[in-house]
Amino acid sequence: MRAVDRIARVSAEFRRPSWLDASAVLLDVVKLYSSERSVRPGLAGVERAIPPAIKAAFARERGLVAHLHDWLDGPGRDFIASKNKGFESPCHPVVTSRL
With contact defined as beta carbons under 8 Å apart, do 19 and 13 qualify? Predict the structure, then answer.
């Protein structure tokens, strides 16, 4: 899925108070949260815009935080662990379970 499509999908989901398939939505959220892309070389990419928007959405909706905690305690645990392998440098921020 292209980043633009993922942004549109996640944005629509964040306007809802809860999700039917929280695991699928949270996978997209984590992929966006850990994105490192820019429109032009040398310019700030989505990594500066996306994480604050995601954090704000979780702050607005307590039900979404519950989905996140459930996901991190279950299927998200392995995904997060796989993303952190070998990416502990300043160039590659480590995905954490805290947003």
Answer: yes
In the chain, % helix, strand, coil (3-state, to 5) comes to: 60, 0, 35
pLDDT in tens, 23-81: 889 888 888 887 766 555 665 666 677 888 888 888 888 888 888 888 888 888 888 78
At 90, the pLDDT band (50, 70, 90 cuts) reads very low
The 3-state secondary structure of 10-35, one letter per residue: HHHHHCCCCCCCHHHHHHHHHHHHCC
Q: What residue ranges do the domains of the chain occupy? A: 3-84
Instruction: State phi, psi for 52 to the nearest 5 degrees.
Output: -60, -35
By the 10 Å C-beta count (0-12 exposed, 13-18 middle, 19+ buried), 27 is classed as middle
Token pair 């954490």 in the structure block, residue: 96
Cα gap 91→89, rounded to integer Å: 5
